[in-house]
């Protein structure tokens, strides 16, 4: 069941970056993210009522809120900003760094052991990021977009480690509370930033928003939490490795994204680095105490 959830989450998550690109063309980034997760949270709260799930209390409630602030408010505020000028395939490829980042954070808090090959993988992946950033896109990749994308990676990684400490909370409840707190912060940030709050008018934006809410938020993160609750945090983050392949294909089809050699070689190095550092069986590599 965890393996099916893993594959399903990776496939549906792969289309998220494309959906965000379409959403950003009409909706301001913070507002678009807040609207997405606000609607998704309402659906999950309705599911909680239907399933008669109780609201978490005390430490569990704090954990769910922290998960929401990291995984939805922080990670997606940065991701939406990055995708204003960064193509979807590049953005999703950079997120393939999440497993390595998750492993390093998990080691830092003594949730997992550090493997020597993870250090080699990190260097390979960083070399890939450098190539991706120089990919021929008709214009240079803005440094702030790259920084925002990498900041999103860190938020996803920390959130995965945090949520492992609260495996007793039902995935529906965890996501309902997390998305509610994340949406509240995103909408408040949108108001403070002076963004225009409006509903979409274009059919393409409505389709993108519908996908992002139902499949890209509710389904993806329910499947993702099911995987995190059964696997280690760094292993569950492998979802971010498979997603770029779906993203690049969809973006080339729907958004006419060019697939240049810089993107191909850089993406390959990122994926190789993630495999060496995070996917390679631990039995074949030495660990550092």
Task: Write up what this structure looks like.
Helices cover 75% and strands 1% of the residues. The chain has 13 helices and 2 strands. Strands 1-2 form a two-stranded antiparallel ribbon.
Question: What's the tally of helices?
Answer: 13
Radius of gyration: 18 Å
Structural class: mainly alpha
Largest β-sheet summary:
2 strands, antiparallel
Count of individual beta strands: 2
Strand order of the largest sheet: 1-2
Mean pLDDT: 85
Instruction: Classify the beta-strand content into a percent band.
Output: under 5%
Unreliable spans are: 283-289
Shape: globular
SSE topology string? HHHHHHEHHHHHHHE
Give the CA-CA distance, first to last residue. Answer: 33 Å
Number of domains: 1
Helix content: over 70%
Layout of helices and strands, plus pairs?
Elements: H1 2-14, H2 16-24, H3 29-51, H4 58-82, H5 88-94, H6 98-108, E1 114-115, H7 116-133, H8 143-164, H9 171-192, H10 203-230, H11 233-236, H12 239-254, H13 261-279, E2 287-288
Antiparallel strand pairs: 1-2
Helix pairs in contact: 1-10, 1-12, 2-5, 2-10, 3-4, 3-9, 3-10, 4-8, 4-9, 5-12, 5-13, 6-8, 7-13
